[in-house]
Design goal:
- With 123 residues, this protein is mostly helical.
- The chain has one domain.
- Helices cover 77% and strands 0% of the residues.
- It contains 6 helices and no strands.
- Helix 2 crosses helix 6.
- The longest helix is centred in the C-terminal third of the chain and has 23 residues.
- It is globular.
Length: 123
């Protein structure tokens, strides 16, 4: 069901700004590649919950499946296959390098969402 949830919209905007800050100002080997991937799953989850009223389990696991699918497509060099390497923003958004650590980050982001939402739903 389509809805607009102001709370999740604010979370989405906040997380997006954090992701932009990380991308622009942080160039290290942990926060940018790992924490950024943990946060991106939470960001996408919040975006989904901004517009769709669905159970949090369903949304979180769907986002995890989506993120893992994109990661697997990176293994098969989707950007090169589609000839998108010259479009820098699209190439960065899709990614071009498969890494198991990214999947671990996505799982940790999903576990964070599930934990926070479970705690919130009990209150």
């Amino acid at each position: 069901m389509l809805v607009f949830n102001k709370r999740y919209a604010c979370y989405t905007i906040g997380l997006f700004l954090v992701e932009v800050f990380i991308a622009v100002f942080i160039n290290d080997s942990f926060i940018r590649p790992f924490i950024g991937d943990v946060l991106v799953v939470i960001l996408i989850y919040c975006l989904v919950r901004t517009f769709w009223k669905t159970r949090y389990h369903t949304a979180a696991l769907s986002v995890l499946a989506f993120a893992c699918t994109i990661e697997i497509l990176q293994y098969f060099k989707l950007v090169n296959f589609l000839g998108l390497e010259k479009y820098k923003i699209i190439a960065i958004a899709i990614g071009s390098t498969f890494d198991w650590k990214d999947i671990i980050a996505y799982i940790l982001g999903t576990m964070t969402v599930l934990g926070l939402e479970s705690k919130r739903s009990k209150n």
